[in-house]
C-alpha cells in the first residue's frame, strides 16, 4: 500500500532464536541489536525516533522491507487493516501518525480483479497493456 508507517512506529523485538546466527534463513544478525538476555530488536527500533534499518521507504509514497523473506515473526503478525477482513489498531495508529487515513475494505478491492493492470502488485506483467517482456534464452 506504499505505506511503511508501521516500520517507523514500534519497537521490533523478537527471540534471539530468530537470528540467522542460529536459524538458517533467519533475521540478518547484523541488522539487530541485543535488547535483553532473551530478545533482539531490529536496529533503529530500540529508541525514538523509530525507523527500522531494513525499511526502504518514503512513507505514503513507496515502501519496501529489504529483508522481507527473512523479516521477524512480529512483523508477519501485524496485518494491514482489512487486508484479511479486520481492522488492525497498530496499522491505523501508525498511518494516523503520518496524517494518512486508516485503510478500509475498499482499499483492497483491486484484488477482486487480479491482473487488471491497475498498478497493483497482482499485475505481475501479465496483463494486456504491460510492456512486452524480452524472451528468455533457453
Ligand atoms: S524488518 Fe521489515 S517489516 Fe519488519 S519493521 Fe523492519 S522494514 Fe518493517
TrEMBL record:
<feature type="compositionally biased region" description="Basic and acidic residues">
    <location>
        <begin position="109"/>
        <end position="123"/>
    </location>
</feature>
<feature type="compositionally biased region" description="Pro residues">
    <location>
        <begin position="129"/>
        <end position="138"/>
    </location>
</feature>
<dbReference type="InterPro" id="IPR005358">
    <property type="entry name" value="Puta_zinc/iron-chelating_dom"/>
</dbReference>
<dbReference type="Pfam" id="PF03692">
    <property type="entry name" value="CxxCxxCC"/>
</dbReference>
<feature type="region of interest" description="Disordered">
    <location>
        <begin position="109"/>
        <end position="138"/>
    </location>
</feature>
<protein>
    <recommendedName>
        <fullName>Ferredoxin</fullName>
    </recommendedName>
</protein>
Amino acid at each position: 500500500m506504499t505505506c511503511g508507517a508501521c516500520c517507523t512506529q514500534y519497537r521490533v523485538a523478537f527471540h534471539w532464536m530468530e537470528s540467522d546466527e542460529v536459524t538458517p534463513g533467519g533475521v540478518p544478525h547484523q541488522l539487530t541489536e541485543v535488547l535483553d538476555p532473551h530478545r533482539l530488536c531490529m536496529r533503529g527500533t530500540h529508541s525514538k525516533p523509530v525507523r527500522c534499518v531494513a525499511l526502504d521507504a518514503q512513507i505514503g509514497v513507496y515502501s519496501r522491507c529489504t529483508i522481507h523473506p527473512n523479516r521477524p515473526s512480529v512483523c508477519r503478525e501485524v496485518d494491514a487493516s482489512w487486508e484479511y477482513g479486520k481492522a488492525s489498531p497498530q496499522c491505523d495508529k501508525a498511518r494516523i501518525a503520518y496524517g494518512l487515513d486508516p485503510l478500509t475494505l475498499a482499499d483492497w478491492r483491486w484484488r477482486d480483479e487480479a491482473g487488471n493492470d491497475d498498478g497493483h502488485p497482482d499485475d505481475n506483467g501479465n496483463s494486456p497493456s504491460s510492456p512486452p517482456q524480452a524472451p528468455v534464452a533457453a
